[in-house]
Amino acid sequence: MDDRIVEFTHLLRRHGARVSLSEDIDAISALGILGIEDPSMFRDGLRATLIKRAADIRTFEELFDLFFLGLGAAVRESERDLMGQLGLTPQQYQELLEEIRRMLQRQPNLTPLARALLAGDLTQAERLIRQAIEREELEQAGGQIAVALYLRLAGRLALGTVEEELGSFREMALAGLDDPGHRQRLSRYLERRLQDLSRMVRDLLRQELKKRSIVASERERLEYLTQKSFAYYTEEDIQRMNEAVVRLAQRFKNLLTLRRRKARRGRFDLQETLRKNLQYGGVPFRIQLDRRKREKPQILILCDVSDSVLNASRFMLQFVYSVQDLYSKVRSFVFVSELGEVTRLFEDNDLQQAVELALKGEVVNVYSHSNFGRAFELFYREHFSSVNGKTTVMVIGDGRNNYNRPNDWVLKEIQRKAKRLIWLNPESRWKWGFGDSEMPRYAACCDVVEECGNLSQLHRVIERIAR
Amino acid sequence: MVFSSGEDVMKRLAEQQYLCSKNVATVVYLACAMRKPILVEGPAGVGKTELGKVLASALHLDLIRLQCYEGLDEAKALYEWEYAKQLLYTQILKDKIGEALAGSRTLQHAVERICSESDVFFSQKFLLPRPLLRAILSPAPTVLLIDEVDKSDTEFEAFLLEVLSDFQVSVPEIGTLKAIHSPFVILTSNNSREMSDALKRRCLHLYLDYPDPDRELEILKHKVPGVGDKLAADVVHLLHRLRKLELKKKPSISETLDWVKALTLLQIERLDHQLVEETLATLLKYEGDIRKAQKEMQEFLAERKAKLQAPAVASDKDFLH
After folding, report:
1. ipTM of the assembly?
2. pLDDT score, position A215
3. Which residues does A125 contact at the CB level (< 8 Å), separation at least 6?
């Protein structure tokens, strides 16, 4: 049983669950305590020892079913079936097996697979086949290639030879028997074994293919999502991204609070220390450090919500509002050519809804042509007073101005007054400056300019901003 | 202090009014037999902390609880020197100290004499044990419940690792203190932060989820004895629908119990009572959630009504599946 467990943990690892050696050992000792008779207890024991992340539970359940419940039940069923067909009691059946095993001892040159099959040791046969399958490269195996795979596998297992051996064993065995009933039973038995062989290979192969496809696809999809440009996201991708952004926000929060807590410790504060230690007769037992004032930054976001950069804006808004308690004030504006404030939306609605409303064109007309210059000018006229030395201003947009006036002087003004001006551009860097892109001009006015076109870039940007 | 099997766990926890599934029982039994900590994860309010408490009373052991929070450090979790007490003793014993030092001619000599007696001030007398040390020093075995371990910082987690792996603590002034009995440790986590692999590796993992309808019904009847069968069944069915909605905070078992207690107190026996909507605040904690729940409840009641008016074969059992 132990090596089955080890095999199972290998399988889990291949599917992305992190299982360490010590957990392997735990699993085996847990089974020593629980026993393996009760299937549900067996499953619970393995799960508690091997799987430590809630996210891996599904993988575990699926693989467990395939791995442990797969052929076992079918094989036992077929044994009983065979017994019935031959009209033997379990005891007589055992005697038959014994007899065959005796005969096998006189045949030293059989392949292991043939020997296991003939001796009725189907578990051993299953293991041999499984090993052969696992050695095969199944990477490219799709629906039709499975046939080619079957052939390759047959070659590896030398199925032809095994069949031949079964045949010759049969002749040999039958030649030594006189009783016709016994002969018939034996030949029935051997025939059945031949059927078992091809059925097992087929089933195991099918199982293996299924095993490999389950989780691999899931992980690939996530991987793919991190690299995929926001611009090409589908509805489903957006759903999944929401989860990713929530996780990212949580991590960012942890990071920042930890950093702030450390920064809070300041220099030695003589006055406070003396006062605090009056209770100890003036002996300075407790050292008081002065507390630095916690400076919560303010953040102001300007989001381009025209079609080309919609998704980048969506995730940035979602992100900033998920972590808004880290800031003393968050204000957000959206623009295409008009400028509209959406801060209120986030106060009145829950996050998801607010993001959708902000992007839907409730506030500004999203069907007009992008005009950064005009939006900046409007911002300068109406909201510039809200920028102060504590404000971090973040602009999200591709800088494609449709050949309008760029008005980059507004950015210069903002940069001069604000703590920091950050521009995030979802377009790839090599496109900046071509066509109607005013990016080089705008970039010159900003403190930080980053490309932010997919999830992994978003990660990087957030790490940088946190610093 | 051990359980003899999974069924034994179930039985003894049930005696403490805690109904658990076979899965939970198996893991608890296993942890007990393997002497490993259990890391319990799952949504809020499914009875993670309760499990720790109940285990202590089922095993007739003392419960020592350590509530984790951001900024929790060794001084609050493990031990602290009682400076004030030490100082007080020094003051009181001033004369004695004078006596002890009498006859020493040089300063050097005096220092050496004090040094030889320094054990007096750094003994366990002046050690203020915090939960972890209490669990280690306790003469009888204990259940150590480390609650919301995900709220603590990563540094603390690393420190915990050391304590959990060999149950010994080194105090520089005294030496190493080793546990007489290793405590039975339960860690709970709400998963607001992924715990490190190293910690997880040392624990058995238990994922507590919302119970299935049958079990929840059982729990309701167990915990709120006066509840009517019909009401309980309706509540459980409604809850399972509510949990499928997008809510800010999904109703947990403890909130359900509160709600049902409130309903029973008000002697409401059917969910279509007009007072029911007003009591929803015990079940849900956000205004938006309550609105959504009200809508869902209307639908639920309407559906049920339709079902009842249709040639009625529908028994209570059908609501549960």
Report:
1. 0.78
2. 52
3. A113, A116, A117, A196, A197, A200
